[in-house]
Amino acid sequence: MGKQTDKLLSTAEVAAHLGVTRQRVLELIGEERLSALKVGRAYVVRADDLSSLSIGKAGRPPKPTETPATRQAGASNGASTSRKKGGKK
Question: Could you tell me the pLDDT band of residue 51, with boundaries at 50, 70 and 90?
Answer without folding.
Answer: confident
